[in-house]
Amino acid sequence: MSGLNAIGWAADWATFVDMGGRGGYVWGSVLVVLALLGAEGVQLVLRRRAALRQLRDTLAAEAAEGAAP
């Protein structure tokens, strides 16, 4: 017996994916959440890069001011 049949709530994968006729809503929602999480991850990376770039530019400007007579 497979794990799904052993617990008695899904006869096969098609039944599991169908979710009692509401699979489109369930899996659509899962896809939206995954897309939003992925977008959040991309935004975090971009914001980090921008912050590091700004810090590098600020430090370079301060160093240039300190070196100038």
Give a concise summary.
With 69 residues, the protein is mainly α. It contains 3 helices and no strands.
How are the elements arranged and paired?
Blueprint: H1 3-7, H2 13-18, H3 23-67
Describe this structure in words.
There is one protein chain. The chain is mainly alpha-helical. The protein has helices at 3-7, 13-18, 23-67. Helices cover 81% and strands 0% of the residues. It starts with a helix and ends with a helix. The mean pLDDT is 86.
Return the structural class. Answer: mainly alpha
Q: So how many helices?
A: 3
Task: Give the overall form.
Answer: rod-shaped
Q: Radius of gyration in whole Å, from Cα?
A: 26 Å
Q: Strand fraction band?
A: under 5%
Order of helices and strands: HHH
Low-confidence runs (pLDDT<50, min 5 residues)?
none
Largest sheet: none
- How many distinct beta strands? 0
Question: What descriptive keywords fit this protein?
Answer:
69 residues, mainly alpha, 81% helix, rod-shaped
